[in-house]
């Protein structure tokens, strides 16, 4: 166990988070953590039920004198994004997350994602279920599965499984901010088959590897101007193909639909008489890109190494078409919101670029707080794919969460926070897919808000959570539970 965490405040929350870190729980591999949670509930005499999708609901009666308060659901997702640095060997289905308490007041993992998104939220729910000294009305804690790769748990949540009337989502990532709306999403996966041909004579093979990028959450970090490794390697290959006649064998970039691609590599073959020129080009182009992204990607690196010559390359009739399509795909912010300052309305994340063994995949995650804009972007992606002769599937659409500024629980939360800390919290919407949008489909009468501690760089190995903000988040949550009004 990450035993040092138990010394932090609040100890019950951190002890629960330590237990979560000890048990592998990447998206779509939550079996071990769900079994642990069910056993944990049994040992602590906490009512627990699981639905067909895998979601867990825990129920705790109101504390004496609070029975007439409006029933509350605390909600978080138990899965985490599995990302590790290229030099870190870590099996997310078997290995625990090793935490590191920094002298700067932040908690990190050792070369991997931390899983504070959303392990801290789940741990807070667990701590409240165990608490003997917290005043609250009828309480449920809903822990969903597979949020990060498709919101499967939220999609599968059926009417009647949850009894409460107020949902407090604990999956936001800036302390002092309360969220009342989020973007919807859509997956756009472009697939194609291409022709391979024997390696021409007189060629030399290289591995081009782009690394050192920050990556990050494809919603929350999309407006920070960070580089996308898939777009960078496309630019490099396109230019060197035009100028030096390189041939492409394989491309692998990005790994998760909801993370900005941090690394990409390609195996290419260069005519021997252009090999030295290609090496100089890559060296010089690295400096060009470093200057272009000097403010956001100071550690950008492009490594070039000689490798064994592959037997086959992509046929010339296909590789230009593939590169042109990759070049045309949008990435980043496409439109800012007209209704809320500094909020991204619509974006695309060119997340995965795989080219190998005659198969092509370009995976994209589209986000927008305006459904019609999301649909229009999907049709734009379809046009790009079909013009290039590829197939595209638009799937996994989920709705956004429309802000309700008259929300009773929002007003209670603002009053509680202001009285406790002497400052008014910021009311925000988020350019990411909180599960609240989907919950509103099956439970349209729920009154919902979202808040959490401060988490930086989720979905990347640079993920970290501010320790002091977790204590403040907990204290506010406890105070809010005591202020929930009579039903």
General description of the model:
With 487 residues, the chain is an alpha+beta fold. The protein is 30% helix and 28% strand. It is elongated and about 85 Å long. The two termini are 41 Å apart.
List the helices and strands and how they pair.
Layout: H1 11-22, H2 31-43, E1 47-50, E2 56-60, E3 72-77, E4 99-101, E5 106-109, H3 116-130, E6 139-144, H4 152-156, E7 166-169, E8 177-182, E9 184-193, E10 196-198, E11 203-211, H5 229-244, E12 247-253, E13 264-271, H6 275-292, E14 301-306, E15 312-314, H7 316-328, E16 332-336, E17 344-356, E18 359-368, H8 371-387, E19 391-398, H9 408-421, E20 426-430, H10 436-442, E21 447-450, E22 455-456, E23 464-466, H11 467-483
Parallel strand pairs: 3-6, 3-7, 7-21, 8-20
Antiparallel strand pairs: 1-2, 2-6, 4-5, 5-23, 9-18, 9-19, 10-15, 11-13, 11-14, 12-13, 12-17, 16-17, 17-18, 22-23
């Amino acid at each position: 166990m990450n035993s040092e965490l138990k010394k932090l405040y609040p100890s019950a929350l951190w002890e629960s988070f330590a237990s979560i870190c000890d048990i592998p729980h990447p998206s779509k591999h939550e079996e071990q953590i769900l079994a642990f949670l069910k056993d944990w509930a049994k040992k602590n005499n906490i009512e627990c039920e699981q639905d067909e999708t895998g979601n867990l609901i825990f129920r705790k009666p109101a504390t004496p004198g609070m029975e007439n308060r409006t029933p509350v659901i605390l909600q978080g997702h138990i899965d985490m994004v599995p990302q590790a640095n290229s030099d870190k060997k870590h099996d997310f289905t078997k290995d625990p997350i090793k935490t590191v308490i920094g002298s700067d007041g932040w908690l990190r993992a050792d070369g991997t994602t931390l899983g504070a998104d959303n392990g801290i939220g789940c741990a807070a729910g667990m701590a409240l279920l165990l608490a003997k000294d917290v005043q609250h009305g009828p309480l449920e804690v809903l822990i969903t599965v597979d949020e990060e790769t498709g919101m499967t748990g939220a999609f599968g949540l059926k009417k009647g499984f949850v009894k409460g009337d107020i949902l407090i989502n604990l999956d936001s990532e800036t302390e002092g901010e309360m969220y009342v709306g989020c973007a919807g999403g859509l997956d756009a996966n472009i697939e194609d088959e291409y022709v391979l041909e024997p390696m021409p004579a007189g060629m030399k093979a290289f591995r081009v590897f782009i690394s050192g990028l920050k990556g990050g959450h494809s919603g929350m970090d999309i407006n920070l101007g960070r580089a996308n490794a898939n777009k960078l390697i496309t630019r490099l290959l396109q230019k060197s193909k035009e100028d030096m006649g390189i041939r492409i064998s394989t491309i692998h970039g990005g790994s998760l639909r909801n993370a900005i691609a941090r690394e990409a590599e390609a195996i290419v073959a260069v005519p021997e008489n252009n090999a030295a020129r290609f090496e100089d080009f890559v060296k010089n182009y690295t400096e060009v890109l470093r200057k272009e992204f000097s403010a956001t990607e100071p550690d950008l690196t492009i490594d070039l190494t000689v490798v064994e010559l592959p037997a086959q390359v992509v046929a010339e009739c296909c590789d230009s078409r593939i590169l042109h399509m990759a070049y045309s795909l949008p990435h980043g912010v496409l439109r800012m919101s007209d209704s809320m300052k500094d909020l991204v309305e619509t974006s695309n994340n060119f997340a995965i670029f795989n080219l190998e063994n005659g198969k092509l995949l370009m995976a994209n995650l589209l986000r927008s707080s305006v459904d019609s804009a999301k649909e229009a972007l999907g049709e734009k992606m379809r046009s790009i794919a079909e013009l290039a002769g590829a197939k595209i599937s638009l799937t996994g659409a989920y709705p956004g969460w429309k802000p309700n500024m008259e929300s009773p629980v929002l007003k209670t939360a603002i009053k509680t926070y202001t009285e406790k800390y002497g400052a008014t919290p910021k009311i925000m919407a988020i350019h990411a897919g909180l599960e609240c949008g989907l919950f509103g489909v099956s439970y349209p009468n729920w009154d919902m808000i979202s808040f959490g501690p401060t988490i930086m760089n989720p979905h990347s190995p640079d993920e970290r959570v501010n320790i002091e903000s977790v204590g403040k988040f907990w204290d506010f949550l406890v105070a809010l539970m005591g202020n929930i009004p009579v039903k």
